[in-house]
Amino acid sequence: MGAARTEGPVTLVTGGGSGIGAAATGRLLDAGHRVTITGRSRERLERFAAEARTRAETKTGAQHDGDTGTLLTVPGDAGDHESVTEAVEATVRRFGRLDNVVANAGISTHDTLADGDPERWREMLLTNVLGPAVLVKAALPHLKGSRGRIVLVGSTAGVKNTPGNMYSVTKWALSALAENARVLVTGDGVGVTLVAPGRVDTPFWESREGGMPEGPSITAGQVAEAIVWAVGQPPGVDVNSVVVRPVGQIH
Hints:
The protein contains six helices and nine strands, in the order E-H-E-H-E-H-E-H-E-H-E-E-E-H-E.
């Protein structure tokens, strides 16, 4: 059985069980991070942990415990303050510190101001806007101590206006949150990066009628590379905005 590793940066990723979050988590683990992932589905988190264990055993040839000693799974709602705070505290209890947070969890109602359901907007606003805000609040005391980094996963929908699209509204709010957070924490040595991907081929589109729109796309792994790059910048360097589109995407 593998013992928990006591060295390496510690990163918390919300929505880490699938899509961009899972891809980023895999790359962070490969880069030597100890990682906590959150998500609403316990089964999805456990499945990801099992896959991570298999990868680790393949690389090292040794058996590992259920989370490989470097991965902690914490089921919970990214839009709920108590759940987010518990995830942060569980991370510090397990690994002894917190160096980075990645606010990745996000959902879309795929509708507009003209035809959407306001009750469904509520959940999207809580996940996409309140969730990252409470993550910053909960993590900030620890990040000040480690002089760590905050990564907020936005969208090009928060860089270019999309007609009447409520998901776009939430991502514009996240862009504002990134800059508000930056000016708040930069004096404490904490970095803030907004990573805004364009069209990405992930399960995000499964809830959209017709699935992913036609046109060029990038992979979750390609966005994950940008996240890991942002987290890995040297001390004293703060990259504030990274927009990642597939070649051929106009907006």
